[in-house]
Amino acid sequence: MGAKDAIQSINNEKPSQNNQSRFDIQFQNHEAVETKKNERGNPQGGADQMDAIYMAYFLILQSVNLQNDTAAIQAKSLQVNAIEQVQLNQEQEKIQYVTIPANLKGEALNEQIPKFQAQNQEIEAERQGISNNLLLLRQNAQVGETKIDTSVNNVEQSVQEGAGLLHMLVNISNQITR
Question: Can you tell me the distance from the alpha carbon of 28 to that of 22, in angstroms, rounded to the nearest whole number?
Fold first, then answer.
């Protein structure tokens, strides 16, 4: 698979076709329960507060899904970058400098040396161009790795927030049942 094929496959692929989690479906199917109202007509705990909690958890979950999809796209970009680097390294290895044939001597050698030098200068310029492209790809890969690290850190933070929310819900439920 060439770099162009890899790029094409990334362009054709959409992040997480099934972006809807079990919680997402549960949230959409959640029905508010009739609750008692206080003297001002506001609900006392119950459905509205539960809706807010479900919404908070849902948003955290969506954040995790989005960051996960982002990290996956960034990883694919790094894969394409790696493929391009391999191809450029192989291309650079194929480009060999011109060498002076052993049977060339005397006046013929003196006549050919400037031609060989000119050819080697062209080859060096081509190899330098490839080296510059490789350097650029490596720098882009480092930036991509940093972006993936950031996305993964965001996922971890969102998961911790979700876990904190669930822990709070457990504590509230325990307090209510006492």
Answer: 10
